[in-house]
């Protein structure tokens, strides 16, 4: 953001509110573009992964190579579809809900670093802000479920609210573990720390536990299978977005894939080194090159975790409601706290793997 | 710019609050409360309390009000009530975006010349809060007392939430009953029963 403002200032002699508006426009435009293109790619990827797990090909016809244009065609179809509003729905809430759902995740993207310096703002509260503002999504889902005035939607919304609110606890606790080690919420600091000390997942014995806890609860937070109870197709048609069609439906889809991206990116940044590689030191490289390599490394890691999310979705059966709650409260929360306390003790005494030895 | 953001967030807080009080439908009131709390979170951020602002969003906007909405929605009998709640709905759309605007703006403050010397430094407040809360010469004791109080409230809530008959029987029976319930209906009571 600073870079854009100073660039606009130097090149065109603009400053003040005008430069600021241009910088905002550029940032919002590029983020929206990135999310849309990424979501289309991820949906295609999801269909291919699903197909190959089920020993079939998936989309092969649209576009020349392995149906790459399938998502583009779908997006065009969704754009032209009629925007249906049920007669008994609460109109204002019904119309606003998809936007509310999307805004939360979108606002979180401003704090995401893609490479050293490639981010809209290096927020001091980075992780906390992303997690916090993304939670607005629940409100949107409840709005959608309630305003649709359909029993499937309402059930889906209630399930979603219960699930997401419950899983916010293990998410937060598991995230506190790397935060405790690094001593900062700022996402840039995590990368700097791991560049110097190696990946946090290998930092001490508790880290893999914390990473696993976070990954599982982020799956639940994204409503991905095996936690897709809010939109369980065989029971609830498609849960809280049963009544939606066209563009408004695609907003829910966009939100789901955007939050998958955020979750995968947080896993790779907080536990798996972010844009750093253990055997490659790019800090001394020229400005653009280091950023490009860093971004590529980070995106490869992120897409690996998105692939794991898809892999789990197409491998595991859906859990029952009480099993979901039991997993969250009986396993993830205690293990998360164990990792937190354990890390605190280990950090205090400077232990890493075996207490007292190293 | 700060004035502008202040006006946006203050409008949220006030309009949301007024709607919450005066709107006939209770579900709409709850949504208006969300918008109002969001406005307050934004005001915190405008004043330089970034940690407090995000905490407000996490705890109140997405935690407490979700549970509130839950309760209100399931007890509401006038499900299809007519609404004029465009403002609160719009508020929820603009809220996160305005927050993002504010956050980025604070971070780049100084790049563009702004007036308003009375505003506090946009320095992060998290370390200061941590120091105050966890150092013995700070507020460590009140902080711990508050935690214990919250724990007591939690245990009390679980006790109250369980039906009177359940308090007599053994834990095993309760767990079994919770399982049976979860299989039968939505299972909202399962975590409470098991958490005890």
Q: Which helices and strands appear, and what pairs or packs with what?
A:
The complex is a heterodimer of chains A (358) and B (196).
Chain A: H1 2-12, H2 17-53, H3 70-80, H4 91-108, H5 126-134, H6 136-147, H7 151-182, H8 187-197, H9 206-221, H10 233-236, H11 246-270, H12 287-313, H13 321-349
Chain B: H1 2-22, H2 26-46, H3 50-75, H4 86-107, H5 126-134, H6 140-161, H7 171-184, H8 190-195
What is the beta-strand fraction of chain B? under 5%
Percentage of residues assigned to helices of chain B: over 70%
Oligomer: heterodimer
- Helix percent band of chain A: 55-70%
**What order do the helices and strands of chain A follow?**
HHHHHHHHHHHHH
Q: Would you tell me the overall average pLDDT of chain A? A: 80
The CATH level-2 architecture of the domain at 1-115 in chain B is identified as Up-down Bundle
CATH class label of the domain at 1-115 in chain B: Mainly Alpha
Q: Could you name the CATH homologous superfamily of the domain at 1-115 in chain B?
A: NADH-ubiquinone/plastoquinone oxidoreductase chain 6, subunit NuoJ
Radius of gyration computed on alpha carbons of chain A:
21 Å
How far is the first residue's CA from the last residue's CA of chain A?
43 Å
Mean of residue pLDDT values of chain B:
71
Number of strands of chain B: 0
Look at the helices and sheets of chain B and give the structural class.
mainly alpha
User: How does the overall form of chain A come out from the CA principal axes?
Assistant: globular
Keywords:
heterodimer; A: 358 residues; mainly alpha; 2 domains; 13 helices; 0% strand; globular; B: 196 residues; Four Helix Bundle (Hemerythrin (Met), subunit A); 72% helix; flat
How is this structure best described in words?
- The complex is a heterodimer of chains A (358) and B (196).
- Chain A contains 13 helices and no strands.
- The longest helix of chain A has 37 residues, at 17-53.
- With 358 residues, chain A is mostly helical.
- Helix content of chain A is 68%, strand content 0%.
- Chain A folds into two domains: 42-80, no CATH class; 83-349, no CATH class.
- Chain A has helices at 2-12, 17-53, 70-80, 91-108, 126-134, 136-147, 151-182, 187-197, 206-221, 233-236, 246-270, 287-313, 321-349.
- With 196 residues, chain B is mainly alpha-helical.
- Chain B has a domain at 1-115: Up-down Bundle (Four Helix Bundle (Hemerythrin (Met), subunit A)).
- Helices cover 72% and strands 0% of the residues of chain B.
- Chain B has helices at residues 2-22, 26-46, 50-75, 86-107, 126-134, 140-161, 171-184, 190-195.
- In chain B, helix 1 runs antiparallel to helix 4, helix 2 runs antiparallel to helix 3 and helix 2 packs parallel to helix 4.
- The radius of gyration of chain B is 22 Å and the shape is flat.
- The relative contact order of chain B is 0.10.
């Amino acid at each position: 953001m600073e870079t854009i403002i100073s660039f606009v200032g130097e090149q065109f002699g603009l400053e003040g509110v005008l430069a600021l508006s241009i910088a905002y426009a550029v940032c919002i435009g590029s983020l929206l573009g990135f999310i849309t293109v990424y979501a289309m790619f991820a949906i295609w990827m999801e269909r291919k992964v699903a197909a190959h797990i089920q020993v079939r090909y998936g989309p092969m016809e649209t576009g020349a190579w392995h149906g790459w244009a399938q998502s583009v065609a779908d997006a065009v179809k969704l754009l032209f579809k009629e925007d249906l509003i049920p007669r008994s729905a609460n109109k204002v809430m019904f119309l606003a809900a998809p936007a509310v759902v999307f805004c939360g995740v979108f606002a979180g993207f401003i704090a995401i670093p893609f490479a050293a310096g490639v981010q809209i703002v290096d927020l001091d509260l980075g992780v906390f802000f992303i997690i916090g503002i993304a939670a607005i999504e629940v409100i949107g889902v409840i709005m959608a479920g309630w305003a649709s005035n359909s029993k499937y939607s309402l059930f889906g919304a209630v399930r979603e609210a219960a699930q997401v609110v419950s899983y916010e606890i293990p998410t937060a606790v598991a995230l506190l573990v790397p935060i405790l080690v690094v001593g900062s919420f700022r996402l840039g600091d995590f990368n700097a720390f791991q560049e110097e000390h190696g990946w946090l997942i290998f930092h001490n014995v508790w880290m893999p536990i914390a990473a696993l806890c976070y990954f599982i609860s982020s799956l639940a937070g994204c409503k991905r299978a095996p936690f897709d109870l809010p939109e369980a197709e065989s029971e609830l048609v498609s849960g809280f977005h049963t009544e939606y069609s066209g563009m408004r439906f695609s907003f829910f889809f966009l939100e789901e894939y955007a939050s998958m991206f955020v979750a995968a990116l947080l896993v790779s940044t907080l536990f798996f080194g972010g844009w750093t590689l253990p055997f490659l030191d790019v800090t001394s490289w020229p400005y653009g090159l280091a950023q490009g390599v860093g971004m590529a490394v980070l995106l490869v890691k992120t897409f690996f975790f998105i692939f794991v999310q898809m892999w789990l979705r197409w491998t595991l059966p859906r859990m029952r409601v009480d099993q979901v709650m039991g997993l969250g409260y009986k396993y993830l929360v205690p293990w998360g706290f164990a990792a937190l306390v354990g890390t605190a003790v280990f950090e205090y005494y400077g232990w890493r793997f075996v207490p007292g030895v190293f | 710019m700060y004035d502008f953001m202040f006006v946006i967030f203050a409008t949220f807080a006030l309009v949301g609050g007024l709607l919450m009080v005066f709107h006939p439908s209770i579900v709409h009131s709850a949504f208006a409360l969300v918008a109002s709390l969001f406005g307050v979170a934004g005001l915190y951020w405008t004043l330089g309390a970034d940690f407090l602002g995000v905490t407000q969003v996490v705890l109140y906007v997405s935690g407490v009000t979700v549970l509130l909405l839950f309760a209100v929605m399931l007890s509401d009998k006038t499900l299809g009530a007519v609404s004029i709640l465009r403002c609160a709905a719009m508020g929820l759309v603009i809220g996160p975006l305005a927050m993002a605007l504010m956050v980025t703006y604070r971070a780049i403050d100084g790049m563009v010349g702004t007036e308003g010397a009375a505003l506090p430094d946009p320095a992060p407040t998290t370390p200061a809060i941590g120091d105050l809360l966890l150092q013995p010469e700070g507020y460590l004791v009140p902080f711990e007392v508050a935690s214990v109080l919250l724990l007591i409230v939690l245990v009390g809530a679980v006790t109250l939430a369980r039906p009177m008959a359940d308090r007599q029987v053994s834990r095993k029976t309760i767990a079994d009953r919770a399982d049976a319930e979860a299989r039968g209906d939505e299972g909202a009571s399962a975590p409470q029963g098991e958490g005890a």
